[in-house]
């Protein structure tokens, strides 16, 4: 009897671990989709500038960058506000939230550190290393997601971010800034916005 009860308990735990929280999928997916789309498009605009395809004034680019961040913060605020009353979370969902929240906090610290050092040393190269470390953090977070969910596409996103980090690092050493920005734009759109859209779709299905 004890073995049977233990087996039932184990099955219940495993079920909770892999349970797809519809609301949580929608929340996380919406944030990833907005961030990937907005900042991916921002990088594409920067790439057209760097490659000499377009010419925008410094004032326009500053306003554009501020507008992108403002829009993302509005989206983030709306998502958090709509999700504020959601308290039940499966074990797997809480683990995923912790992984991505940890990556987000680390990203904020790294942004501050790299930004300050780049400004202090007047070195664009130092700042270019920041997205490399961010890509590694995202790869690690998606790896955790794959370890919990065991979905092949999650592993693919993780591998994609590791490959992006390697590619960005190589381009930093060559000084090819245009290709660097283009690679980052593609990564944000394909490895952040697209997975976010997939999570939103799964969230609607689960809901």
Please write out the topology:
Layout: H1 2-18, H2 22-50, H3 58-82, H4 91-121, H5 124-149, H6 152-174, H7 177-206
What does it look like?
By secondary structure, this protein is mainly alpha-helical. The protein has one domain (20-206). The chain has 7 helices and no strands. It has helices at residues 2-18, 22-50, 58-82, 91-121, 124-149, 152-174, 177-206. The model is unreliable at 5-20 (pLDDT under 50).
How would you concisely characterize the structure shown here?
The chain is mostly helical and 207 residues long. It has 7 helices and no strands.
Name its key features.
207 residues; mainly alpha; 0% strand; single chain
Provide the β-strand percentage band: under 5%
The quaternary state of the protein chains shown equals single chain
| Separation, N- and C-terminal Cα atoms | 36 Å
Give helix % range: over 70%
Number of strands: 0
Output the structural class.
Answer: mainly alpha
Q: Roughly how many Å is the radius of gyration?
A: 20 Å
- Integer count of domains: 1
Order of helices and strands: HHHHHHH
Silhouette: globular
Number of helices: 7
Segments where pLDDT lies below 50 for 5+ residues? 5-20
Average pLDDT level: 80
Largest sheet: none
């Amino acid at each position: 009897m004890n073995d049977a009860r233990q087996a039932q308990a184990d099955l219940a735990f495993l079920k909770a671990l892999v349970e797809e929280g519809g609301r949580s999928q929608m929340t996380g997916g919406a944030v990833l989709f907005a961030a990937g789309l907005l900042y991916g498009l921002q990088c594409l605009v920067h790439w057209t500038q760097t490659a000499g395809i377009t010419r925008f004034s410094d004032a326009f680019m500053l306003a554009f960058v501020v507008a992108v961040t403002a829009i993302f913060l509005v989206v983030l605020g709306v998502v958090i506000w709509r999700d504020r009353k959601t308290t039940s979370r499966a074990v797997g969902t809480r683990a995923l939230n912790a992984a991505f929240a940890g990556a987000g906090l680390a990203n904020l610290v790294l942004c501050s550190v790299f930004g300050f050092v780049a400004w202090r040393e007047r070195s664009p190269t130092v700042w270019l290393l920041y997205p490399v470390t961010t890509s590694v953090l995202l790869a690690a977070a998606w790896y955790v997601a794959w370890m919990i969910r065991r979905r092949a596409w999650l592993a693919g996103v993780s591998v994609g971010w590791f490959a992006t980090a390697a590619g960005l690092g190589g381009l930093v050493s060559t000084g090819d800034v245009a290709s660097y920005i283009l690679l980052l734009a593609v990564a944000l759109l394909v490895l952040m916005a697209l997975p976010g859209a997939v999570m939103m779709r799964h969230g609607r299905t689960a809901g």
